[in-house]
Amino acid sequence: MKDKTNSRHVSIRYSFGFKQKVVREIEEEGLSLSQARRRYGIKGSQTIQAWLEKFGKNHLLNKTVRIEMKEEKDRIKELEAEVKRITKVPPCGCPGTVFIRR
User: Fold this and answer.
1) Cβ(52)–Cβ(23) under 8 Å?
2) Of 15, 34, 51, 85, whose CB count within 10 A is highest?
3) What are the backbone angles phi and psi of residue 80, rounded to the nearest 5°?
4) Which value, in Å, is the radius of gyration of the alpha carbons in the chain?
5) What global pTM score does this model have?
6) Which residues pair with 100 in a beta bridge?
7) Which residues pair with residue 87 across a beta bridge?
């Protein structure tokens, strides 16, 4: 069994210039985030994303596009309206208490 008293976690800190270089290469060379991580041996999966946000390069981040059919959107609105209609915080404002209208 490994002796936990002698094991230490190593935190890697990157210089400002290094971060700028990686972000610049992603932008100018069109590197994907995973390619940049492999090129520079960056282990953290969110590290480069944080740098892109820090340097205002959000346009380089992956985006999720949700495509819904009109019926799905309508159903979501119906359900939200139903929840709003049947639940109401009681006049006493007691947290965790829900009043159901009938």
Assistant:
1) yes
2) 51
3) -65, -40
4) 24
5) 0.54
6) 87
7) 100
- Write the pLDDT tens digit of every residue in 17-62: 999 999 999 999 988 999 999 999 999 889 999 999 999 888 888 7
Integer Cα distance of 19 and 56 in angstroms: 13
CA dihedral (94, 96, 97, 99) positive or negative: positive
Q: Hunting for tokens 């820090």 — which residue is that?
A: 54
Q: Which residue has the tokens 């959000």?
A: 58
Residue type at 27 in one-letter notation: E
Structure tokens at 29: 């060379």
Q: Which two tokens stand for residue 76?
A: 């979501």
Do 48 and 33 meet the contact criterion of CB atoms below 8 Å apart?
yes
Q: Which two tokens stand for residue 10?
A: 């190593």
